[in-house]
Amino acid sequence: MLALEISTKTSALILLFVMSLTPVTKTIADTSTHKMTVHQMVNRIINYYPSLRVAKFNVDKAKLENTKVQAQLSWVLSGQTGYSRDVSFVGAATDKYEINAKIAKKLESGSELGLSAGYREEDSEFAFTSTVANPSKTTDISLDYRMPLSKGSDNPAYQHDVMRATTSLKINKLDQDELRDEIARQSIELYYSLADIKLRIQNTHESIKRAEQLKKYVLRNKEIGITENIDLLQTEAKLKLSQANLLELDTVLRKQIISLNKLLGLPWDNDLDVIIRPIEEKFTIQTEERIKNTFAYNQGLHKLNAELDLVDSELSLLRDKKKDKVDLIFSLGARNRSGDTAVGSLNETDTIGGLQLEYQNNLDKTGFDAERLQSQIERNKILETITLNKRELEFEVYSLISEIKTSVKAYDGQKIRKKVENEKLIDARRRFKVGRTDTNQLIEFEGDLLEAELAVKQKQLEIKNKLTLLDLKSGKFWGVAK
Asked: Using 50, 70 and 90 to split pLDDT, how confident is the model at 91?
């Protein structure tokens, strides 16, 4: 709550004098007023707040990471061409012209599919035999398929990249939500601080009203000789003090409203008012349910769990890297050879293909073991952090609920106090009329009642404030939890 210091009578008079010299440039009718609930104000601040717009750029950037990862499975086109001159084993010079092309892609399973084609033309000084074409032309086309049997099976490298992109997007979104909640928390505090100032102003207006009524009563009694001049001076002093307090409160209110208008993106001189719905006289808080919802909603825990999933994916990738490479390679295609021979022409097409087993072993695996241990240590660290954060959240929820319960008890006590103060003032007024008490005591009892009335309303605000913060912590404020 906002603490206010009451100035001396002298400073109040100076303030009145200074304000009387200030020209009035706006009337009440010139100022627009926005009445808002706490949800309306928080949502408007969040929609306007620049930092959240910056955080959204990070989310948009992270979304593109998944597109980059998916590109790993796209088709890749490669090719080569060239000319060479060589001498055959019989001493004939041969010119070779060659062009090759291949299109291939890696599958999500880790296998690789490709289609290759080639064209080669050879021209020798002389043919080795009369049945060999010279010059000769050869065209190849084949379908290739590589299937990993051990290392690379199920494509863990790709799966890890997908997990990393997904985790990056999730963490950026959670960072955005975390910033949103922090802005919401501060906005809620500002909202209820504004409501508290409004309450104090209403209470001070009531104090001025009662002081004016008492002054009129004292004046009437002074005319008939029942009260003395000192009674009139006491009521006048009380009235001036309340008016000075009102000016101070109006100054604080204006500063608060200007600050909120800046956050809301409204004109600086816009007026704001709050809508406080009354609390239920009897309500219950399911502590364990609140803790469960807080765990389910908390962005910090979600980020740690996302990091844990990423570390698990990294461990899976490291286990795969340590395996021996065993790939099975299939190929099936056709080859056409054509050209002129010494005895005629040649044009033959044959089926070609093959089956291969490829093996590779990294003999030194100490590097893989070190990486795996590092990742395991990181995993244990994250698990320990999750445990600590859950315990911290538990205590925060317990503390907030305990404060609410204490405030409810204090609220009930202040209602009883208000009733007693009202009865005390009624009795004092009755005794004042017959001259059995003085003006000073009547003013004191008026102040006690006003203080009790304000305390009741402030306790209501305090409970609403803490309930709203509890709802924010468990996600209920945004409708995430019931």
From this structure: low
